[in-house]
Specification:
The complex is a heterodimer of chains A (280) and B (325).
Chain A (H helix, E strand, L loop, with lengths): L2 H41 L4 H5 L13 H32 L2 H16 L2 H16 L4 H26 L2 H9 L4 H12 L1 H16 L26 H9 L4 H33 L1
Helix pairs in contact in A: 1-11, 3-6, 3-9, 4-6, 5-6, 6-9, 7-8, 9-11, 10-11
Chain B lengths: L4 H4 L16 H39 L2 H4 L3 E2 L4 E2 L2 H32 L2 H16 L2 H27 L14 H25 L3 H9 L4 H12 L1 H17 L2 H6 L17 H8 L6 H39 L1
Antiparallel strand pairs in B: 1-2
Chain lengths: 280, 325
């Protein structure tokens, strides 16, 4: 082997390793730029009015997103109430009761459902709820978001339940208790960290979902008027205000983005902290 | 790995079911109850497919296959064709993957093969945070920061590479290229996370054998590590593609909403999802709505195909790994 070839290999090695490092650096830099911009830009428009006042008509100064903040919380709550029981029970079924064939079918369905674009889920909710009820409604939006949550919760619950050692199951049965009590009293508590993590991840995912709300929740100029009426939500308002020509509204979009980002990233950090502790 | 977890969970390995047989009454009720909830998931999926087909039926029977090839979208004359939307979806996603792939692959290689462990954890975390930013917020950022930034970039590209038809035409800032860049930002985290897991799954003896032969670290990565996990890397890319195809809000906000077929990447355009997002709530006539639903059906079909292929590729690798251990 000649010296020049050796040198060339060495330099090529260095070059490619540096390029890989640049990939990582670039990815993180992009994140830093986006996050930093939204946080710095958004926080400058946050004030007490924004949090405690309802939206005002064009031209009037002030106004805020109180209604949309409450609306988002209602939608998240509604979706969670619907999705958590379904997801958790399906997870229990997959990990402990299913025969391999049915389990594969359900798992496949859950994975496909998780990959369905959220706007298609919105059309589905529109077709089964909005059209028959002749009104855009909070409940249709809650169901659309719930459909997005279910597969995430089911698959993470299944995974965490599987991590509970079989000796726990055997020990529970050896005590003579019934299987359903063993599941609810021993197995689920043993996997609760993972289950809660999955639920929180799914909440972080739907908190910022906008596409399925476009033709279910629609948005509303008023506060909460009941589950069968249109409802405002933070991500929807960001979308509408961002595309509006009014500087005042655009500023509010940034403030709302800041708030939403704080919620979503807060959840991610807590999840990271909890699951990191579990593995440690 | 948290954010991508539901996307890439492999089918679990077979394990004896301790709770499989149950004789007691309460147990039978409980296990049937869990079965019912599990079937809800299957029912939602089947219902979704059925509803899409039923609601798209007027459009399917009126236009037939010409819907896919038609280029006009005119609610007044009720003539609807999907080709510009399909073209826009594929084009913006392809640009996104082309930009995201080298960055993600480099980042994944760096994270597994080079980064010290303290850096590895925090870098992975930061990249996953990018995945957590809601689409509409990326869109807001794109509209007010990226679009003004892209105008001089596109002017420069037009000036220097204008011989290619894709870099010709008027510069708006919004358009296919900007949408592609936004999509790249959004799929970098998932491609990075999945390829990182694939690279990590390569057993160390592969690396050690190559290094023992006198190979440099890059040669080891290039000839021993990457070929070993090729199917995982392809799966990661396709998974990213699936994400890009269905992405709605951010793309709708920066693509400019024009309905045309053009080679120019600077031109405003539309994707399937942006078309639905911007028109569905205003659609009045039955055929208009049916055509939008048929668009959704096309999108569903494409993402379904892409996701199934990606999952099979990623799973095959993890199965190989499980068997090797």
């Amino acid at each position: 082997m000649s010296g020049t070839s050796h040198l060339r290999r060495k330099w090529f090695n260095r070059l490619m390793l540096v390029l890989s490092g640049c990939g990582a650096g670039l990815a993180i830099m992009i994140l830093g730029v986006i996050l930093g911009y939204i946080l710095v830009h958004g926080i400058s428009y946050i004030n007490l009015d924004f949090l405690t006042h309802a939206a005002k008509p064009v031209g009037e100064a002030g106004g805020g997103m109180r209604n949309e903040i409450i609306g988002s919380l209602i939608l998240i709550g509604l979706a969670s109430v619907l999705a958590i029981p379904v997801g958790l029970m399906a997870g229990i079924f997959l990990s402990d009761f299913a025969s391999p064939k049915i389990a594969a079918t359900v798992r496949f369905a859950a994975d496909i459902l998780a990959g369905v674009p959220s706007i298609v889920v919105g059309i589905f909710a529109y077709a089964i709820l909005v059209r028959p009820m002749h009104s855009y409604s909070a409940v249709s939006a809650g169901i659309a978001l719930g459909i997005i949550m279910v597969p995430i919760i089911a698959r993470t619950a299944e995974e965490s339940l599987r991590l509970v050692p079989n000796s726990m199951r055997e020990a529970a049965l050896a005590l003579g208790i019934t299987r359903w009590r063993a599941v609810l009293g021993v197995i689920v508590p043993g996997a609760i960290t993972g289950i809660v993590t999955g639920v929180m991840l799914s909440v972080a995912r739907i908190a910022g979902e906008t596409a399925p709300l476009l033709f279910t929740a629609l948005g509303s100029n008023f506060g909460f008027q009941g589950l069968t009426k249109p409802i405002g939500a933070l991500p929807l308002q960001i979308y509408h205000y961002a595309l509006s020509p009014y500087a005042d509204w655009q500023h509010q979009a940034w403030a709302a983005a800041f708030l939403l980002l704080l919620l979503v990233l807060g959840i991610s950090i807590v999840v990271r902290w909890v699951s990191g502790r579990r593995h440690a | 790995m948290n954010y991508s977890a539901p996307d890439i969970l492999p089918p679990p390995s077979r394990k004896g079911r301790i709770f499989g047989r149950h004789r007691r009454f309460g147990d039978r009720i409980f296990s049937n109850l869990t079965l019912i909830f599990a079937l809800v998931i299957v029912a939602i999926l089947l219902g979704l497919v059925a509803i899409l087909n039923i609601d798209a039926a007027p459009s399917i029977s009126k236009f037939g296959l010409s819907f896919l090839g038609g280029t006009s979208w005119n609610p007044v004359t009720e003539s609807f064709g999907a080709l510009p939307a399909i073209y826009g979806t594929l084009l913006s996603s392809a640009i996104g993957v082309l930009i995201a792939l080298p960055i993600s692959l480099g980042a994944a290689i760096f994270l597994v093969e080079m980064a010290p462990s303290w850096l590895r954890g925090s870098c992975s975390f930061l990249i996953e945070m990018l995945a957590a930013i809601p689409s509409v917020i990326i869109g807001l950022w794109g509209l007010y920061v990226l679009v003004p930034f892209m105008r001089p970039v596109e002017t420069w590209l037009g000036g220097h590479l204008g011989v290619l038809p894709i870099f010709r035409g008027q510069v708006f800032g919004v358009g296919f290229l900007t949408a592609g860049v936004i999509l790249a930002l959004m799929i970098i985290p998932i491609i990075t996370a999945v390829s990182r897991d694939a690279i990590r799954a390569v057993p160390d003896h592969q690396r050690e054998a190559m290094l023992a032969l006198g190979a440099t670290r890059w040669e080891t990565i290039r000839r021993a590590v990457l070929p070993y996990c090729r199917s995982g890397l392809v799966g990661a890319t396709i998974l990213g593609l699936g994400r890009a195809l269905g992405e709605t809000m951010a793309v709708t906000m920066v693509i400019g909403n024009a309905y045309k077929l053009t080679a120019s990447l600077f031109s405003p355009g539309a994707t399937i999802s942006s078309k639905i997002a911007s028109e569905f709530s205003e659609a009045s006539s039955g055929l208009f709505i049916a055509s939008l639903v048929e668009l959704a059906l096309v999108l569903f079909g494409v993402t379904l195909l892409v996701n199934v292929v990606a999952r099979l590729l990623v799973w095959r690798l993890t199965a190989v790994k499980a068997a090797g251990e």
